[in-house]
Structures are given as structure tokens and as C-alpha cells.
Design a protein that fits this description.
Largest sheet: 4 strands, mixed
Order of helices and strands: EEHEHHEHEEHHEEEHHEEEHEEEEEHEHE
Number of domains: 1
Distance between the termini: 27 Å
Shape: globular
Number of helices: 11
Helix content: 25-40%
CATH superfamily: L-arginine/glycine Amidinotransferase, Chain A
Strand content: 25-35%
Radius of gyration: 19 Å
CATH class: Alpha Beta
Length: 340
């Protein structure tokens, strides 16, 4: 019987993938703002591990990095519609100890946007021998699954929101029970913890888990807490918090819950943007945390440090990212040791 393990994000990494902003993406009219944000993320990754950059022009990327940084930099020229590598990137598993990348279908969060090129990125990377020779490729394009929609503790437990996985234009006519069984079979999970509450205004993903609640280790979950009764999110996030308090680990113990502050509201053209501190990225030796230029940034940093006592918390100004309704974790996909 095949044994599949879906590593947690804190598992030692060989590198991280970013898909670079370019004139053919929705960033076309604000490249001068968003590229410095990507460069800041990239430089923190390059200090600690390899960085794989998917882009249409390698020279345009290389110019941002010095000779020392380029030693850890891999550049792959592959076409893309957009830059959200968390959702069009491959998921990495070990099957009977062997590294395997799983290429799921990506249709831009239920056919909301174009994704014809994004959906081909993982296959294109594999064809370019970006991965180590022992890495196997498995195509699952008949099932829509975004990396931001699922959290793994590396020990057989998944955390996800039911709203996202049952939303239109993803995997209908499958019901939630069918989807759960598929996830268990394909990702080697023993159980799925479903959140039925929680959302962020301005989020295009139908409530991805990585905007709301995140595993920090097998026994700890960091989550967005809303304590302001006048905030439109109050009821839903209070209900989500109650659900989280009811969850128990595989050993039957309640999780240690670390509340993250609700980010101050940020608006663009009258619409609220999905600013969230839960959209952090775990890398080797550090956690990259999105910041939004308010005093709550420091509050969130202190809370995350409680969960990651052995890692440096590094703040990255992500105000440009939320203008396209994503944040830091959405930009990146990690690969465990033995993959890149």
C-alpha cells in the first residue's frame, strides 16, 4: 500500500517559487510599485534557500540581484497570466519516501479570470528539468485545487474552508464528502478539519484558508481575530474562532490558538481590500509576514513570534499586493528538500 505524506510548510525546504510580475499581468499599471515588493520577498528567501522565479524575461529579473544572491537563484522562462504561485504552483508530497509534484488544475478561483498559461506552468517547469531527477510528476488537472485553499500539519491533518471547496466552477458536481475523500486519497490525509465560517471582504478566492487560519506546528494554529463589533467581519470571524476552539489534534487535545489582530481596513476606490496577517510565509529559519504600514504590524509580529520561537519574523510591506486582492503567502510556493 502506497504511503503519501504532504509535508507541512515548516518542513526543511529546497526553495521557493515566485512568478514575477510583468506587463501581461494585472500589475501592468503598477509595476513600479509591486516589483520592489517582490524583490524584497526574493532577497529574504535568497538569504536562506534557493529561489525559483518564473518569468517571461530572465534578464529583467536578474538585474535586481547581485552576484552572491544569484548563486541561489533559478530562473525559468515560462508564460503566465498572473503571479499567484501559491495557487498555480505544484503541491509537493512524498510517496513511499520518493518526492512527487502534483499538478492540479487551476482555473483562477472558479473561472473568475484567465488562467490558460498559469495552468501550464508546473508542466512547463518539469519539462525544463527544474526539479531534481528523482522527482516524479503526477498530473491531476481534472481536479481544481489551489495551494492557498489547504493547510497541512505534515502528520495527516488538513485544514480548509468548506465555502472555497464547494464554490461554483471548481469541482461540481462533487459534494464536500466527495472532495474530502479525494483529498485524503491524493494527499495521504487521515482527516480534514473544515471551517464553515470566516471570510475577508475583497478576497477573490472564496475564502482561502491561508487568509484566515494557519498551522504553525502540529499543535498550534494562528488565526485572524476580530474584536471590533462594528467591523463587518465580526460575526463571521467570531463564529470561526468558536469552530477553531472546538477542533482537537489527532491525539484528542485542543489546539493552542494564537490570535492575530485584524488588520486595519485598507480601501481602494471605495472597496475594502483583503489585508490579513495570516498570509505569512514560512521559510528556512524565518517567517515572512505581510505588513500594511500601521501599528498593528508590530502587534502581529509579536503574536507570530510566540508560535515561531526558533525563527526570525521578517516584515514585508505588502500594501502593493493587496491592491490585487492577494498578499505575501499568495505569491509563493515552497518546495521541500530534495525537490529543486
Amino acid at each position: 500500500m502506497t504511503r503519501t505524506i504532504f509535508p507541512a510548510e515548516w518542513y526543511p525546504q529546497s526553495g521557493v517559487q515566485l512568478t514575477w510580475p510583468h506587463a501581461g499581468t494585472d500589475w501592468f499599471d503598477m509595476l513600479d510599485e509591486v516589483i520592489p515588493c517582490y524583490v524584497a520577498i526574493a532577497k529574504e528567501i535568497l538569504k536562506r534557500e534557493k529561489l525559483l522565479v518564473v518569468c517571461p524575461d530572465g534578464d529583467d529579473v536578474l538585474r535586481h540581484f547581485n552576484k552572491e544572491e544569484r548563486k541561489n537563484l533559478l530562473v525559468a522562462v515560462v508564460r503566465s497570466n498572473d503571479t499567484w504561485a501559491r495557487d498555480h504552483g505544484a503541491l509537493s508530497v512524498f510517496r513511499d519516501g520518493k518526492p512527487v509534484i502534483l499538478d492540479f488544475g487551476f482555473n483562477a478561483w472558479g473561472l473568475k479570470f484567465a488562467a490558460n498559461y498559469d495552468n501550464q506552468i508546473t508542466g512547463g517547469l518539469y519539462a525544463q528539468d527544474i526539479f531534481q531527477p528523482q522527482v516524479q510528476y503526477r498530473c491531476h488537472l481534472n481536479f481544481i485545487l489551489e495551494g492557498g485553499s489547504i493547510e497541512s500539519d505534515g502528520k495527516g491533518t488538513l485544514l480548509a474552508t468548506s465555502e472555497c471547496h464547494t464554490s461554483p466552477n471548481r469541482n461540481q458536481p462533487m459534494e464536500l464528502d466527495d472532495i474530502e475523500q479525494y483529498l485524503k486519497t491524493t494527499l495521504g490525509a487521515e482527516r480534514v478539519l473544515w471551517l464553515n465560517h470566516g471570510y475577508l471582504e475583497g478576497d477573490d478566492t472564496d475564502h482561502h484558508i491561508d487568509t484566515l487560519a494557519r498551522f504553525c506546528n502540529e499543535h498550534t494554529i494562528a488565526y485572524v481575530q476580530c474584536t471590533n463589533r462594528d467591523d463587518e467581519h465580526f460575526d463571521e470571524l467570531q463564529a470561526m474562532e468558536k469552530e477553531l476552539r472546538s477542533f482537537v489534534t489527532a491525539e484528542g487535545k485542543h489546539y493552542t490558538l494564537i490570535p492575530l489582530p485584524m488588520a486595519d481596513a485598507v480601501y481602494s476606490e471605495g472597496y475594502r481590500l483583503p489585508a490579513t496577517y495570516a498570509n505569512f510565509l514560512i521559510i528556512n529559519g524565518a517567517v515572512l509576514m505581510p505588513c500594511y504600514g500601521t501599528p498593528r504590524d508590530e502587534m502581529a509580529k509579536q503574536q507570530l513570534q510566540k508560535a515561531f520561537t526558533d525563527r526570525t519574523i521578517v516584515g514585508i510591506d505588502c500594501r502593493p499586493l493587496i491592491r490585487q486582492h492577494g498578499s505575501l503567502h499568495c505569491t509563493a510556493m515552497q518546495y521541500p528538500q530534495g525537490f529543486l
